[in-house]
Amino acid sequence: EGARLFRVSPSDFLVWLTAFLTVALVGVEWGICASAALSVAIMLARVSFPAVLRLGRLPGTNYFRPLRQYRGALAPRGYILFSIAAPVCFASIEHIRTGLKAELDAQEVAAEKDEEEPLQFVVLDLSASPTFDAAAVQWIDETRDELEGQGISLVLANPSQQVLHIMKRAGLVHKLGVQNIQADVMDAILYVEETLRSRGCMV
Question: Which domain does 95 fall in, by range?
């Protein structure tokens, strides 16, 4: 059972092993406490250090997948699409900020080297964020300001109703512009690509 669990989920195996050893050495109550504490620590680590995935389009389709996992996926021109694999909140913001900056810096270097279209949009998929805290609102606002200073528009895709409500109360919907908040990722991509074409850009 332990070997199968390790193959399926190493983190669950670690919790199981911790519970087993603690129960055997100290007692049932300590085993339950130790495994529960480890489970909480693993959950917090996952929330605090989410994957920041840059997506590309699979050729001939409207499917977008992580560029680092799908070598055949093509990076779009004129915009970058990011998916964050955890809620945007106080615990995860610094890691997300660092990940986004690294990807944007890499894109800038690649664009200069290959003489690509300048970056005009950053699309952020919020499907993993059912709600926002105050830190998330502030981060979105700061990110919008930073990108706008570089001539880049921030587009949010798939925000929940609760996220929209929070952003409205914070005045973020007005700052971003309703056109830069789209119901899902595909709507955001269609809006961005149509805007790029209207500006004479190749997409």
Answer: 49-198
Among the ranges 16-25, 41-50, 110-119, which has the highest mean pLDDT value? Answer: 16-25
Residues 122 and 59 in one domain: yes
Helices (H), 115-184: 134-148, 161-169, 172-176
pTM of the predicted protein model = 0.80
Side chain identity, residue 108: E
| Sign of the dihedral defined by the CA atoms of residues 181, 182, 187, 188, in that order | positive
Ordered DSSP codes for 59-120: TTSS-EEETTT-TT-BPPSSEEEEEESS--STTTHHHHHHHHHHHHHHHHHHHHHHTPPPP-
Q: Do residues 192 and 110 share a domain?
A: yes
Residue 170 pLDDT exceeds 80: yes
Res 17 pLDDT > 90? no
